[in-house]
């Protein structure tokens, strides 16, 4: 009988993973992550431990080693099949071996195999990766340590066996996490926030450019660990040049200096003020079973907000998918009061009842539809990202990138960063993740503003370098530029590189040299080139002789960065005795989200084209009467109002603004209600401007279209009523 002591799985099997320690080092907008996994075999027989876990989809894994007793074994990068064979051969001969490899289906899933761990033996696995930090709607830099891995749905007919995950509820995940972070930047650090409890931020110098923070004790594995880092003057363009590795061959990627250029474009105000009033907006909503409970509610609320904020004159359609897919209209229709109300009704009826997560077929159908002349197509995708054919989906988006822009929303904990980021990157759009208690509205409206920005075409980069210095760009061409969104370019510099000025389009950037040996920029540059080559290999699979794959393997081995064609292999050759029976395999459970994750943030109020925010006016009579939806008190009461309780419902809250007596309302009820709405938003809700800005533009446009003669009177009366002092010009009137 098995001795059920120590760490156990749900099946009462002992688990050899005891704890995980994570050290994060953030330098400006680049992060280096070192994870140490501590294993211990408390059974009376040798074990093989298997741990499948997530990493950021754009991470460059660059180090893997094992400490067994006093012996340290550093892994090498080898072609994947050769690494697997070497691992199997080592185990069969009684040697300890360690294998780390990327999933064939998705670059954000890795598996770690710890082989032949003797009874009573301990081993520490050290894993290091580097990654870029994404810029959020509020200018924060987002780092996410994935702690949640949900099973990925494998569509019928797809290649591969899918990602096999051993999961458990948070309370039964049998290992602990210790997490600490060190942040440094040329700019002062304003604050660090998290969705998890943190110990207080500790500044290390007087100018507050360095700080440390730790995860508070008692962390449960019920969510990803997310850090939001805020710098002052975060939108300054920068360039970092990193010296090459002294031991590497000159002229090679690792031997030459590598530059990383970070751009934050700022367009003229005349361009930014001319938001597009046209476009075809196609929304694709995940209704698979994994989207049940509050995930589908969050996605629907997100979609409702977008629908109510679309510009007049555009076209739109809504698709939803699971094992099959549906669409509200047979083809995209013009945006009007009638079509919007029909769509809103359909969306509110949607549930997570369509089975599996087969996103490929609805995407193919959308791309097969002819584009509407002078209506640029904008695709918005809402999904929890639990698919097993991530690379196929991303390849399809890239193939059709010339005819649309793709904006993606990852809903819930464990959403695939590879899928969400990959679709947006290849589709020339923007990615957002909505988790935990995130404020959804700013993220949603940022993506819509990006979609309404004029498309930037013919993007070119000019390198103004000395004649003796040549440049090889490692990044794919930039296909999308948005106001305030960061774009990164990696390039290899060959020749004599000193204090030069790089000219990037019209931006001149003074290079900052980092003469360090960690090679962070080199590895990120190598990762960028590897991903581009991998996609090229998939596009031409079966048409070539394997030359691209050989390039990937060569670059991966040379740079020490993982790829889909290579793996890290480490063998302890100091021990070895032939194993007479198969090893007992123990699968380490990851947390899988099993509970609702996101409360409702979005109002169910009727936001129409006439009145962007629903006002409720209540007259004091024998009983309180509430006005019908989309009408104001003035349509019911043309004369003087003796006493009025004025309330406004905004999102899920109702605010009593004021009780007034003996007021004489302006004559036009609709103009009065709309103007009052604008004054309330500009005067009392500027903290949430990113959420209502597009609605306010629509309301102001409605007033302009009617050429209302009493607008000035309404603004004056509204300011008195609400106690504000908002000028007519500030309202866009």
Explain what the structure shows.
- By secondary structure, the chain is of the alpha+beta class.
- Among the domains are: 16-151 and 164-232 and 562-591, Immunoglobulin-like, CATH 2.60.40; 276-453, Rossmann fold, CATH 3.40.50; 646-731, no CATH class.
- The strands form 8 sheets. An 8-stranded mixed beta sheet has the order 5-4-9-2-1-13-16-15. Strands 20, 21, 22, 23, 24, 25 and 26 form a 7-stranded mixed beta sheet that branches. Strands 6-32-7-8-3-33 form a 6-stranded mixed beta sheet.
- Helix 11 runs antiparallel to helix 12.
- The longest helix has 20 residues, at 520-539.
- The protein is globular.
- Mean pLDDT is 76; it is low at 1-10, 150-154, 498-516, 578-582, 591-651 and 653-663.
- Residues 333-360 form a coiled coil.
- Residues 1-131 form the VIT domain.
- It comes from Oreochromis niloticus (Nile tilapia).
- Residues 280-448 form the VWFA domain.
- This is VIT domain-containing protein.
Explain the layout of strands and helices:
Blueprint: E1 17-27, E2 30-40, E3 47-54, E4 60-68, E5 71-74, E6 76-79, H1 80-92, E7 96-102, E8 109-117, E9 122-132, E10 134-135, E11 141-145, E12 167-168, E13 176-184, E14 189-194, E15 202-203, E16 210-214, E17 225-231, E18 238-242, E19 258-263, H2 269-272, E20 280-286, H3 294-309, E21 315-321, E22 325-327, E23 333-334, H4 337-348, H5 360-368, E24 377-383, H6 390-399, E25 404-411, H7 417-426, E26 431-434, H8 440-452, E27 470-473, E28 487-494, E29 501-504, E30 507-510, E31 512-514, H9 520-539, H10 547-559, E32 566-572, E33 584-588, E34 590-591, E35 615-619, E36 625-626, E37 641-650, E38 653-663, H11 669-684, H12 689-706, H13 711-722
Parallel strand pairs: 1-13, 3-33, 12-34, 18-31, 20-21, 20-24, 24-25, 25-26
Antiparallel strand pairs: 1-2, 2-9, 3-8, 4-5, 4-9, 6-32, 7-8, 7-32, 10-11, 11-17, 13-16, 14-17, 15-16, 18-19, 19-28, 21-22, 21-23, 27-28, 29-30, 35-36, 35-37, 37-38
Helix pairs in contact: 3-4, 3-8, 6-7, 8-12, 9-10, 11-12, 11-13
């Amino acid at each position: 009988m098995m001795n059920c002591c120590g760490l156990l799985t749900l099946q009462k099997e002992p688990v050899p993973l005891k704890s995980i320690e994570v050290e994060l080092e953030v330098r400006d907008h680049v992060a280096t992550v070192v994870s140490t996994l501590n294993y211990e075999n408390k059974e009376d027989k040798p074990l093989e431990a298997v741990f499948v876990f997530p990493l950021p989809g754009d991470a460059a894994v660059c180090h893997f080693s094992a400490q067994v007793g006093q012996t340290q074994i550093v892994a090498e990068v080898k072609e994947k099949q050769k690494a697997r064979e070497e691992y199997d051969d080592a185990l069969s001969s009684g040697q300890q071996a360690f294998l780390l490899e990327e999933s064939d289906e998705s670059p954000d899933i890795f598996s770690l195999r710890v082989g032949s761990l003797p009874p009573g033996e301990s081993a520490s696995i050290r894993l290091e990766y580097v990654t870029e930090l994404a810029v959020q709607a509020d200018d924060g830099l987002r780092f996410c340590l994935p702690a949640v891995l949900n099973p990925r749905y494998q569509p019928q007919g797809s290649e591969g066996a899918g990602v096999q995950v051993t999961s458990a509820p948070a309370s039964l995940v049998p290992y602990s996490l210790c997490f600490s972070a060190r942040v440094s930047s040329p700019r002062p650090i304003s604050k660090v926030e998290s969705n998890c409890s943190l110990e207080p931020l500790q500044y290390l110098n007087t100018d507050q450019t360095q700080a440390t923070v730790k995860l508070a004790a008692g962390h449960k594995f019920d969510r990803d660990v997310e850090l939001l880092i805020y710098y002052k003057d975060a939108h300054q363009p920068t360039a970092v040049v990193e010296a090459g590795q002294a031991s590497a061959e000159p002229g090679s990627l690792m031997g030459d200096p590598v530059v990383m250029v970070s751009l934050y474009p700022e367009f003229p105000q005349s361009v930014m003020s001319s938001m597009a009033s046209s476009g075809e907006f196609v929304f694709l909503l995940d209704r698979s079973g994994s989207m049940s409970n509050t995930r589908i509610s969050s996605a629907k609320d997100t979609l409702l907000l977008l629908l109510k904020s679309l510009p007049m004159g555009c076209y739109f359609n809504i698709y939803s998918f699971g094992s099959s897919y549906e669409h509200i209209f047979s083809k995209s229709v013009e945006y009007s009061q009638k079509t919007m109300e029909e769509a809103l009704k359909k969306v509110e009826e949607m549930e997570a009842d369509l089975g599996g997560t087969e996103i490929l077929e609805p995407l193919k159908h959308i791309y097969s539809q002819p584009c509407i002349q002078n209506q640029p197509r904008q695709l918005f995708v809402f999904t929890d990202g639990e698919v097993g054919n991530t690379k196929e989906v991303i390849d399809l988006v890239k193939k059709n990138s010339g005819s649309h822009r793709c904006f993606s929303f990852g809903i819930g904990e464990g959403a695939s960063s590879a899928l969400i980021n990959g679709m947006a990157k290849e589709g020339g759009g923007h990615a957002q993740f909505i988790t935990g208690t995130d404020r959804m509205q700013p993220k949603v409206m940022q993506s819509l503003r990006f979609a309404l920005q004029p498309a930037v075409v013919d993007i070119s980069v000019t390198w103004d370098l000395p004649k003796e210095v040549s440049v090889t760009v490692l990044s794919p061409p930039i296909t999308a530029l948005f106001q305030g969104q960061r774009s990164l370019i990696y390039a290899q510099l060959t020749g004599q590189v000193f204090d030069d000025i790089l000219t990037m389009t019209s931006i001149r950037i003074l290079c900052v040299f980092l003469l360090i040996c960690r090679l962070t920029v080199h590895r990120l540059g190598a990762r960028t080139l590897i991903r581009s080559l991998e996609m090229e290999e998939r596009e031409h699979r079966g048409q070539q002789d394997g030359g691209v794959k050989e390039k990937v393997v060569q670059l991966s081995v040379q740079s020490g960065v993982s790829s889909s064609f290579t793996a890290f292999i480490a063998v302890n050759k100091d021990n070895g005795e032939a194993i007479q029976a198969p090893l007992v395999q123990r699968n380490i459970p990851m947390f899988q989200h099993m509970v609702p994750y996101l409360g409702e943030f979005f109002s169910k109020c009727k936001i129409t084209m006439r009145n962007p925010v629903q006002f409720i006016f209540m007259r004091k009579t024998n009983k309180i009467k509430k006005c019908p939806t989309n009408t104001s008190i003035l349509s019911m009461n043309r004369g003087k109002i003796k006493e009025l309780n004025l309330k406004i419902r905004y999102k899920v809250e109702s605010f009593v603004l004021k009780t007034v007596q003996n007021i004489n309302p302006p004559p036009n009820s609709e103009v009065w209600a709309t103007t009052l709405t604008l004054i309330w938003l500009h005067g009392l809700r500027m903290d949430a401007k990113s959420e209502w800005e597009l609605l306010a533009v629509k309301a102001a446009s409605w007033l302009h279209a009617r050429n209302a003669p009493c607008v000035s009177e309404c603004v004056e009366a509204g300011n008195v009523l609400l106690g504000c002092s908002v000028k007519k010009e500030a309202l866009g009137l």
